[in-house]
Amino acid sequence: MLRKKLYTLVFLFEENNVLLGLKKRGFGYNKWNGFGGKIEQNESIVEAAVRELKEECCVAVKHENLKNVGRLEFTFEGEPIVMDVRVFSAKVFQGTPRETEEMTPKWYKYDDIPFDNMWPDDKIWFPYMLSGNLFYGKFNYRGFDTIISYDIKKFDSVHELNKYNEDLNTN
């Protein structure tokens, strides 16, 4: 039986730039990614996203400025856990991104995103996010570098995405 663990992932945007962070330790070490992590006890998904962003790159975002743009589920062959990742974006935030013990932030133009130094699935779902589409993606990995299978769906409204999220949670 697979057990779900809930995570957040936040991307900041300015004009045609996206803020990524180079992971300096732990899961995803030496890969560029968004900012996020585990949800703590008695914390909502949005509260966790706000906290993780602040901890990992010293930028503050208000709850109302976070937009839920997607959901990603990851399984790793032989592992009993499903990583259930809620993806958020924000265009309004306070502060200048700064390096922390966890991440080194850097702005990238859309054409310069370092996909070769990111998770392999990013090449598949990032275009949905960058073009303003809402999405759900499910990825099954062998190890950390090989995608065995995946499925991705696009949604036209947050209502559809949330309904799909609710349906998934009741299964």
TrEMBL record:
Q: Record's superkingdom?
A: Eukaryota
Per the database record, which ranges form the Nudix hydrolase domain?
Answer: 3-133
Record-given protein name: Oxidized purine nucleoside triphosphate hydrolase
Family indicated by similarity:
Belongs to the Nudix hydrolase family.
Q: Write down the EC number.
A: 3.6.1.56
Functional note: Oxidized purine nucleoside triphosphate hydrolase which is a prominent sanitizer of the oxidized nucleotide pool. Catalyzes the hydrolysis of 2-oxo-dATP (2-hydroxy-dATP) into 2-oxo-dAMP. Also has a significant hydrolase activity toward 2-oxo-ATP, 8-oxo-dGTP and 8-oxo-dATP. Through the hydrolysis of oxidized purine nucleoside triphosphates, prevents their incorporation into DNA and the subsequent transversions A:T to C:G and G:C to T:A. Also catalyzes the hydrolysis of methylated purine nucleoside triphosphate preventing their integration into DNA.
Q: Which gene encodes it?
A: Nudt1
GO annotations of cellular component type: cytoplasm
